[in-house]
Design goal:
about 160 residues; five-stranded parallel sheet; 8 helices
Length: about 160
């Protein structure tokens, strides 16, 4: 069964960043092979609309392999709870909304290259504290390189 993964905008942008390109390419290659069920949202589509042309093209070329989920009222309420709990400030409300959308759509893991406001140990703990308090499941948040599926069989050492 493929892993249900929400990719935020930074993962698409990572295709065009020297530091993140290889892992982003491998991640999306594994999406195309069916190893992941990719989820994206209207929020990602809106943010990609402001991105360079290559990022927009990559996003739209991957849409056939993704499920586009809405930004629901539940996600907006959860985002507000993250902001009220001080997980991030209002300035980074879009980052909180990505986590909220992924949470309410019950993905197994969210991937991002945003190491300051999303893929950050203390923030992940805070997002999940709010989730638990409000009755949502904890969400696993990783970089794309951390979720890549190793095609090599496990070897005994």
């Amino acid at each position: 069964m493929p892993i249900r993964v929400y990719a935020d905008t930074s993962v698409y942008g990572g295709l065009y960043d020297i530091e993140f390109a290889t892992a982003s390419q491998l991640f999306f290659s594994q999406v195309k092979k069916g190893q992941f069920t990719l989820f994206t949202s209207a929020l990602v589509a809106d943010e990609v609309g402001q991105a360079p042309e290559g990022v927009r093209e990559a996003f739209y070329s991957l849409l056939p392999f993704a499920e586009l989920v809405p930004v629901t009222g539940e996600a907006l309420r959860l985002q507000r709870a993250y902001l009220e709990a001080g997980v991030v400030t209002h300035r980074w409300q879009g980052d909180a909304l990505h986590v909220a959308v992924a949470t309410v759509h019950n993905v197994e893991v969210m991937v991002s290259w945003n190491l300051k406001h999303i893929v950050n140990y203390n923030r992940i703990r805070m997002y999940n504290e709010v989730n638990r308090r409000l009755g949502w499941a904890a969400i696993d948040i990783r970089t794309p390189s951390e979720v890549l599926i190793d095609d090599e069989p496990n070897e005994r050492v």
